[in-house]
């Protein structure tokens, strides 16, 4: 169990069980639970995914939707006695890239915000660097941005987990 004010990074592939694991960490903390959703519902399939995530999570969560201004939101909702789950960082990176925002600057801002929070923080993200080199420039830039962000967050996190087939591997902490 981590102390309040520390952060946990949960990485894994698509459908690896990382969100379920992260939600279990948050629920098991006994703290007031806040869920930060970074996804945008651009189409019916994404709306269905968001609805399923919300239903699977169940009651007892305060939900915040923020696709871009993540560091600012985390500072606004910060407080002792809270656990904040962010799902997910790779969707956040996608949103920044689509807005032609400075991903490196925003990543540094996020890490600065994370290190100053009193809330326990659980950050979920897709590990995208284990596959083949993407064939197009934007996909390669996305992979690179996500990889650099994961390294920054992991450096400052108290704990880091990698989830595969629903099984957690503790990498740090």
Automatic annotation (TrEMBL):
InterPro entries listed in its UniProt record: CobU/CobP, P-loop_NTPase
Q: What is its EC number?
A: 2.7.1.156, 2.7.7.62
- The record's active-site residues are 53 (gmp-histidine intermediate)
Q: Does the keyword Transferase apply?
A: yes
Sites binding GTP sit at 12-19, 37-39, 54-57, 65, 87
Q: In which pathway does it act?
A: Cofactor biosynthesis; adenosylcobalamin biosynthesis; adenosylcobalamin from cob(II)yrinate a,c-diamide: step 6/7; Cofactor biosynthesis; adenosylcobalamin biosynthesis; adenosylcobalamin from cob(II)yrinate a,c-diamide: step 5/7
Top-level division of the source organism's lineage:
Bacteria
Q: GO MF annotations for this entry?
A: adenosylcobinamide kinase activity; ATP binding; cobinamide phosphate guanylyltransferase activity; GTP binding
Recorded catalytic reaction(s): these are: adenosylcob(III)inamide + GTP = adenosylcob(III)inamide phosphate + GDP + H(+); adenosylcob(III)inamide phosphate + GTP + H(+) = adenosylcob(III)inamide-GDP + diphosphate; adenosylcob(III)inamide + ATP = adenosylcob(III)inamide phosphate + ADP + H(+)
Question: What this chain does, per the record?
Answer: Catalyzes ATP-dependent phosphorylation of adenosylcobinamide and addition of GMP to adenosylcobinamide phosphate.
The family assignment reads: Belongs to the CobU/CobP family.
Protein name in the entry: Bifunctional adenosylcobalamin biosynthesis protein
- Organism of derivation: Rhizobium daejeonense
């Amino acid at each position: 169990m981590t102390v309040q004010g520390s952060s946990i990074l949960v990485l894994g592939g698509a459908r690896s069980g990382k969100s379920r694991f992260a939600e279990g960490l948050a629920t098991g903390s006994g703290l007031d639970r806040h869920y930060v959703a970074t996804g945008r519902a651009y189409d019916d399939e994404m709306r269905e995914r968001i609805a399923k995530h919300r239903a699977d999570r169940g009651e007892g969560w305060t939900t915040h939707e923020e696709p871009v201004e993540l560091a600012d939101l985390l500072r606004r909702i910060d407080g002792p006695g809270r656990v904040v789950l962010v799902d997910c960082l790779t969707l956040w990176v996608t949103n920044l890239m689509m807005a032609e925002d400075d991903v490196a600057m925003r990543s540094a801002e996020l890490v600065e915000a994370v290190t100053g929070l009193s809330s326990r923080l659980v950050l979920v993200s897709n590990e995208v660097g284990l596959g083949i080199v993407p064939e197009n420039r934007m996909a390669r830039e996305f992979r690179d941005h996500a990889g650099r962000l994961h390294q920054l967050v992991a450096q400052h996190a108290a704990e880091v987990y990698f989830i595969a087939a629903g099984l957690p591997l503790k990498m740090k902490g």
